[in-house]
Amino acid sequence: MPELRHDPVLDEWVIISPQRQNRTFLPPAEYCPLCPTRPGQAETEIPREDYEIAVFENLFPSLTRDAALLTPSGSHPSRPGRGVCEVVCYTPVHDTTLADLPVRQIVRLIEVWKDRYAVLGARKEVKYVLIFENKGKEIGVTLTHPHGQIYAFPFIPPRPARELRSAKIYREKNGRCLFCDIVADEMKIRSRIVVENGEFVGFIPSWAHWPYEVHLYPKRHEESIAPLSPKTIGLFADALKRLLTGYDRLFGFSLPYIMILHQAPTDGKAHPCCHFHVEFYPPYRTGKKLKYPAGCESGGWVFINDTIPEDRAAFMRKRVRQAEG
Question: Which of 145, 147, 215, 262 is catalytic?
Fold first, then answer.
């Protein structure tokens, strides 16, 4: 059973989840637990012959609904790792990616994200709903079927919490939304924009930690995915499709990445400083070289970017346009 233990040095929670040691690891090519269960074949985690998008609770979760304490942790606080971990399968087709899906299927996926954010966020113990995708073996993915995950946390994770603190300080000082000002600056400068449509803009920020780190924002202030209209969802899907297709054109292969949706906590409090957006962290710095967050990054929390964001944005913008024909 998972347990939360408090790190007194960094003042943050760590999830202790030993049952994940037994999770499925790179199964044989002939068996994928996220594919539909076909007649006459071994049953997968999805007991249906077909599906459009499948959502189910992770069989090897980091958090569970009924978690209890494992062992006493001494003088440092610990509590049950209660929460929900879900898997979201984007398509029944195994040999594809989110970038390959038609816009209409990405629209359906965003609608699923919107639903799960609302349903999980309504749970009393859930303070933050983190929607994300890990793509590629370089990221540590153990199942190659196109899928993402959703973690419903009983606390606000450190990175979103720090982001919200910065935004609150900025608002108190300037009377404006930090993220709205960032978007306005990028649209004025334009040298770092890689994709744009009527309601969304994606750019490599000047402070990018990763060479091809793109942040995708709605141009209007929205605290979360919850209020997005059908029209806005359609334009969100369009921007995602164009961005991901551009990623795959960068080096001529399907680019691995981490994708994280940043949005308002679900702790029952008002969060006017929050501005919904999506961040992408691809590990490649060239077509053959990976960036590793080693000593300085992991030990000092100081990222070193070996590239110039404006140059990488120009290169990626060209690839996005090539992908669009």
Answer: 147
